[in-house]
């Protein structure tokens, strides 16, 4: 049986990893900022898709709900970073609406309405039909993991393109490294006080991140150097993939 000193040390180490995860995740949430700077400069969203920001918003909403004391206690750091994510994704969506055309705007409103209805239904059904934090953790955790797995599928097309072209032109190096570190930090956080759902989410993220790093190492030299090429514009923080801090 662990003594109070061991418990405190474990809590402190977990807090440090969680805090570091918050810092790295904030960087990932901020990564689309250059894209929106360009959108504001041009005065139009052009062909940029709002889907990554809409998906990330729902992802953050679910994880904030997951981290509530009445669902999964002792998850303050999960709530804080995903709360920040909700604010930042909301800003991106508002800017997208400001600079989009009528057809693009209607699509965003439809998806937002569906997401809010789904989230509200998940909250109401969980709170009224599931009693106790264990049952609530199971239900909300499964929803979070399903959404995360769907979002993790996004970078697979880019990874296939890298293998096909033997070029990492469309795989941002720094973002891939940051995403891998983010997954690793949150995975460690989850293992120190075992959390199955954060472990699955970030274990998957760390594995995919490591595959991206392997691809970068394999094809970095074979990537054509184009001095006059504009830097890749980033819609999300994981090589056209997703932001998933937890």
**Overall number of domains:** 1
Describe the biggest sheet?
A: none
How many individual helices? 9
Straight-line distance between termini: 29 Å
SS content category: mainly alpha
Give the mean pLDDT.
86
Strand content: under 5%
> Uncertain runs with pLDDT below 50, 5 residues or more?
228-242
Helix content: over 70%
General form? globular
The value of Rg in angstroms is 19 Å
Extended strand count: 0
Describe the structure in your own words:
- The protein has helices at residues 4-30, 33-42, 51-66, 76-98, 102-129, 133-152, 155-165, 173-192, 196-219.
- It has 246 residues and is mainly α.
- It has one domain (4-220).
- Helix 3 (51-66) packs antiparallel against helix 4, helix 3 (51-66) packs parallel to helix 5 (102-129) and helix 3 (51-66) packs antiparallel against helix 6 (133-152).
- The longest helix has 28 residues, at 102-129.
- It is globular and about 55 Å long.
Gist?
The protein is mainly alpha-helical. It has helices at residues 4-30, 33-42, 51-66, 76-98, 102-129, 133-152, 155-165, 173-192, 196-219. It has one domain (4-220).
Question: Any chance you could write out the topology, listing elements then pairs?
Answer:
Blueprint: H1 4-30, H2 33-42, H3 51-66, H4 76-98, H5 102-129, H6 133-152, H7 155-165, H8 173-192, H9 196-219
Helix pairs in contact: 1-4, 1-8, 3-4, 3-5, 3-6, 6-9, 8-9
Keywords:
single chain, 246 residues, mainly alpha, 9 helices, 73% helix, transport, membrane, transmembrane, repeat
């Amino acid at each position: 049986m662990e003594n109070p000193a061991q418990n405190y040390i474990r809590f402190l180490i977990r807090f440090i990893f969680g805090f570091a995860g918050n810092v790295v995740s904030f960087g990932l949430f901020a990564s689309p900022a250059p894209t929106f700077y360009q959108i504001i400069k041009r005065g139009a969203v052009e062909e940029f898709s709002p889907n990554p920001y809409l998906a990330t918003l729902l992802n953050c909403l679910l994880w904030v709900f997951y981290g509530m004391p009445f669902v999964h206690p002792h998850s303050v750091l999960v709530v804080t970073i995903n709360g920040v994510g909700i604010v930042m994704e909301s800003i991106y969506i508002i800017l997208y609406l400001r600079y989009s055309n009528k057809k693009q705007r209607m699509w965003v409103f439809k998806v937002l309405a569906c997401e809010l209805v789904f989230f509200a239904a998940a909250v109401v059904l969980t709170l009224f039909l599931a009693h106790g934090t264990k049952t609530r953790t199971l239900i909300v955790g499964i929803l979070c993991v399903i959404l995360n797995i769907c979002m993790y599928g996004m970078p697979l097309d880019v990874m296939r393109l890298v293998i096909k072209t033997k070029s990492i032109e469309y795989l941002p190096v720094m973002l891939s490294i940051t995403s891998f570190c983010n997954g690793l930090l949150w995975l460690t956080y989850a293992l120190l006080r075992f959390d199955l759902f954060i472990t699955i989410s970030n274990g998957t993220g760390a594995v995919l991140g490591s595959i991206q790093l392997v691809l970068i190492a394999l094809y970095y030299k074979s990537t054509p150097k184009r001095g006059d090429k504009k830097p890749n514009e980033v819609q999300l923080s994981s090589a056209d993939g997703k932001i998933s801090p937890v």
